[in-house]
Amino acid sequence: LPAGKSEELSIRTNAIEPGKIENYAEVETVLIDPNLSNNAATAVTDVVALRIPNIFTPNGDGMNDFFEIVGLELFPENELYIFNRWGAELYRQKNYRNDWNGQSLNEATYYYVLRIKMENGDWRNFKGYITLKRSDRVK
């Protein structure tokens, strides 16, 4: 690269387990490099192992009756917000424990924001949608 210029390298990692991933990259050149100290970099990333469903069926059959986020127990400090399609907040819970069943909401698609506190004290946000389906109710 010309003097004073930089380039960005992106590395995509497909993690299969939670934990820390360390990526190391080093560049070489066929030209004489007067500063070899800036040719390597290391990036450490925390892999969060949450599985957030996009549908749940609170119909009393004992399966999928709650909005259950697998792995959430690893992040006891968290916040869950549920919104309707117009952005009105319908549900809010600090330290959510996988116990929301949609109460008296109609079958529809809703939107969530899940905030979790990482080990380093930073908050990480997850956003998405959840479909609530109550058909085939147990009588």
Report on the structure:
There is one protein chain. The protein has 139 residues and is an all-beta fold. It is 0% helix and 36% strand. The protein has no helices and seven strands. It has strands at residues 19-26, 40-47, 55-56, 78-83, 89-94, 108-117, 123-132. Strands 3-7-6-4-5 form a five-stranded mixed beta sheet, with no helix packed on it. β6 and β7 (123-132) form a beta hairpin.
Which features would summarize this protein structure in a list?
single chain, 139 residues, two-stranded antiparallel sheet, mainly beta
What's the short version?
The chain has 139 residues and is an all-beta fold. It has strands at 19-26, 40-47, 55-56, 78-83, 89-94, 108-117, 123-132.
What topology emerges from the helices and strands here?
Layout: E1 19-26, E2 40-47, E3 55-56, E4 78-83, E5 89-94, E6 108-117, E7 123-132
Parallel strand pairs: 3-7
Antiparallel strand pairs: 1-2, 4-5, 4-6, 6-7
Quote the beta fraction: 35-45%
Structure classification:
mainly beta
Helix share, percent? under 10%
Largest sheet: 5 strands, mixed
Mean pLDDT: 88
Compute the gyration radius: what is it? 22 Å
Provide the succession of SSEs: EEEEEEE
What is the strand arrangement across the widest sheet?
Answer: 3-7-6-4-5
N-end to C-end Cα span = 71 Å
- Poorly predicted runs: none
| Shape, per Cα inertia axes | elongated
Number of helices: 0
Number of strands: 7
